[in-house]
Design a protein that fits this description.
Structural class: alpha+beta
CATH class of the domain at 68-79 and 319-390: Mainly Beta
Largest sheet: 9 strands, mixed
Shape: elongated
Radius of gyration: 53 Å
Distance between the termini: 128 Å
Helix content: 25-40%
Mean pLDDT: 82
Order of helices and strands: HHEEEEEEHHEEEEEEEEEEEEEEEE
Strand content: 35-45%
Number of strands: 22
CATH architecture of the domain at 68-79 and 319-390: Beta Barrel
Number of helices: 4
């Protein structure tokens, strides 16, 4: 390549002029600004979320935080040992009314449970046409025998008069007298049989044996019953007997005249009474002593066949501190509980004096007025910080 050629090439390159860039528009300038603003907003939102997460994080450990518990105040009380028994309320008298001599179909049953009946009132009737016919037959037979016996008695009297005059032989007189005596004996036997058939007829009409109430109706009309079958049951609740059994070791505890407290589960009533009677011997199978308590109930408000609880106090009252039974763990003769002092729960073990009706009686070494944890103690350890809330509903019974 010559110098002239090189010069031409330089001139050609110089002649090539680059175009000027277009002037920037408003839309082109807004895109970077929008991207930058969006980036700043995302960064700010992330910083806000991190701050909120850090603020909601608990920096205090659970072991150092106060545990919420409910406490009750221990009360000063007197405890007297008691013996508790469970008995059954029974009527003063009870009768299962049914046939005792005849088997027949039930014709009518006139009462239902709850009916009040008087002594001698008809409760049910049986279809006893067979017994009635038998009674009539026996009665007719008795009248026939009676007529024959009278005739023979008159003949024997006349024969005896003739014997005195020598008109008849002694043998004939004795024969007629023997026939009269035999007819008399047969008449007595027939009359006894008539009495039995009369009892059978009377057994077809069932009456109330005493004033009382109908407790059960077990048979309806149309059923066939036999002797011993109960159709209705009548009870007398004017006096209720609470019967129970005590261990042989409590023979002196349930002596007649001892005052007791009764709780009737059916009516939720509390009564006081005295033991009326006690068996002189224990049952050979259970080694328990039977005793009864009579409770007067003229208005007949106590249902029989229900359960009654009997509490008998023994020994002398002794001072104690009372808390709910659910506030402590009982092991043997000691109770473990938590007592709140200030804001700290301390575990204590206290001797037990006794227990009654959901209440625990402890040794007075636990002062009255102490705040005892009743709820939340399963999560506590000795020395834990607590936030105590007093149970205002827990009152001394």
């Amino acid at each position: 390549m010559t110098a002239n050629d090189a010069h031409k090439i330089e001139q050609a390159k110089a002649a090539q002029v680059k175009p000027a860039p277009p002037p920037p528009t408003a839309r082109g300038r807004g895109v970077p600004l929008a991207v930058g603003g969006l980036l700043v907003a995302v960064l700010a939102l992330g910083a806000l979320m991190m701050w909120r997460a850090e603020a909601s994080t608990n920096k205090v450990s659970l072991a150092q935080s106060a545990k919420p518990v409910t406490v009750v105040r221990a009360a000063e009380a007197k405890y007297r040992p008691t013996r508790s028994y469970v008995g059954t309320l029974m009527p003063w008298v009870e009768a299962n009314v049914g046939p005792q001599l005849v088997s027949a179909f039930v014709d009518t049953v006139l009462v239902r449970p709850g009916a009040v009946v008087k002594r001698g009132e008809v409760l049910a009737t049986l279809d006893c046409r067979n017994s009635t016919a038998s009674q009539q037959a026996v009665a007719s037979q008795a009248r026939a025998i009676d007529a024959r016996q009278r005739a023979l008695a008159d003949e024997a009297a006349r024969t005896q008069a003739l014997l005195d005059g020598g008109f008849v032989s002694p043998n004939q007189a004795e024969q007629i007298g023997a026939q009269s005596a035999a007819e008399l004996a047969q008449l007595e036997a027939t009359r006894a049989k008539l009495t039995g058939t009369a009892l059978e007829v009377n057994d077809c009409v069932l009456r109330a044996p005493f004033d009382g109430e109908v407790s059960r109706r077990t048979i309806d009309p149309g059923a066939f019953v036999r002797p011993g079958t109960s159709i209705v049951t009548v009870v007398d609740r004017s006096t209720v007997r609470l019967t129970a059994d005590a261990p042989e070791t409590d023979f002196d505890v349930v002596a007649p005249g001892t005052k007791v407290s009764l709780h009737l589960l059916a009516t939720n009533r509390d009564l006081t009474a005295t033991i009326t009677r006690r068996a002189p011997a224990a049952d050979l199978g259970t080694r328990t002593v039977h005793f009864e308590i009579d409770v007067a109930d003229p208005t007949r408000q106590i249902p029989v066949g229900t359960t009654g609880e009997i509490a008998v106090e023994v020994g002398d009252p002794r001072p104690a501190t009372e808390i709910p039974l659910s506030s402590a763990v009982v092991r043997g003769a000691k109770a473990t509980l938590f007592v709140v002092d200030g804001e700290v729960a301390h575990q204590k073990t206290v001797p037990i004096v006794g227990e009654a009706r959901g209440r625990l009686f402890l040794d007075p070494s636990l002062p009255a007025g102490s705040r005892v944890v009743s709820q939340g103690r399963s999560l506590l350890e000795d020395g834990d910080q607590v936030a105590a809330k007093l149970d205002e509903e827990q009152v001394h019974p």
